[in-house]
Amino acid sequence: MARQSISFTKPNDEWLKAQVDNQEYSSKSELINDLIRQARKQQSQIDWIRVKLDKSERSGFTDNTKEQILKQSKSLLNG
Q1: Chain-wide mean pLDDT for the chain?
Q2: pLDDT reported for residue 44
Q3: How far apart are CA 47 and CA 41, in angstroms?
């Protein structure tokens, strides 16, 4: 594993220490790695949503009412 040296603000360092003291994590390194994993997962989800939104926007907009859209969706599902 790559070794890094990083600095924290006092409130962030105290929060990290509290998580370790509460035995939520065995070390600050474990906690930081978990936070990074969570951030990477979240970014992956954001990227997926962004792709879906872009695709939807490119497909165009409709003037149909909610009822018309629901009726069309049901007819597509029911064949």
Answers
A1: 94
A2: 96
A3: 10
Which residue, chain included where needed, has tokens 């003291």?
21
| pTM score, whole prediction | 0.66
With beta carbons less than 8 A apart as the criterion, state whether 31 and 19 touch: yes
Cα gap 41→38, rounded to integer Å: 5
What are the helix and strand counts (H, E) for the chain?
A: 3, 0
Q: Within its chain, how far is the Cα of 71 from the centroid?
A: 33
Contacts of the segment 42-48: beta carbons below 8 A, 24+ positions apart: none
pLDDT in tens, 38-53: 999 999 999 999 999 9
Q: How far is CA 62 from CA 56, 65, 69, in A?
A: 11, 8, 9
CB 16 within 8 A of CB 31: yes
| Cα–Cα distance for residue pair 73/31, rounded to 1 Å | 45
